[in-house]
């Protein structure tokens, strides 16, 4: 056996003398599919766009839950986010006024934690919120239905724990325009215009 044939080059091809052997497979990377890990091939990306039954995500509702499909863009989502932030801050302010709670008291901290969490959990479970109504959006699962209490709770917790810029900036390049709290709860934000007219949950 020649030195060139025994140097570990793939496919038995000769490797030029002096070049080191390749050190394993590529490390973790991101390819725009919304997945973290090794580069995903076409089959893997197709599988990621399907649910546990093998059907395309959102197929039951006639939706294409991918960028340039039925999901809402980042700009429109930002409008809904700002409207919701203003709404629950107004609720917090009114609670403080009517209860006479001082901002330096332990009660203020409790109210400041409970109001946003309860706000997001309630509305994320239902699939709509005042902010989403303003922006003409709906929060759904991959069957096109409201997320429900469990997914709504997961989403609300991540909203409070993960800084805004990390969670929402992720959606800028995600292939399904999902934030980190969307990914944790397996939810999607779509314009109301994308939902079937016959949907009884449409607001």
Which features does this protein show?
203 residues; mainly alpha; 2 strands; disordered N terminus; disordered C terminus
SSE blueprint and pairings:
Layout: H1 42-48, H2 74-99, H3 106-126, H4 130-135, E1 137-140, H5 148-161, H6 164-173, H7 180-185, E2 188-191
Antiparallel strand pairs: 1-2
Helix pairs in contact: 2-3, 3-5
Please tally the β strands and state the result.
2
Structural class call reads: mainly alpha
Helix/strand order, N-terminal first: HHHHEHHHE
Please tell me what the overall shape is: globular
Major pleated sheet: 2 strands, antiparallel
On the 0 to 100 scale, the average pLDDT is 76
Low-confidence stretches: 1-6, 26-45, 198-203
Determine the fraction of residues in helical runs and give it as a percent range: 40-55%
Strand order of the largest sheet: 1-2
N-to-C CA distance: 74 Å
β-strand percent reads under 5%
- What radius of gyration results from the CA coordinates? 23 Å
* Number of continuous helical runs: 7
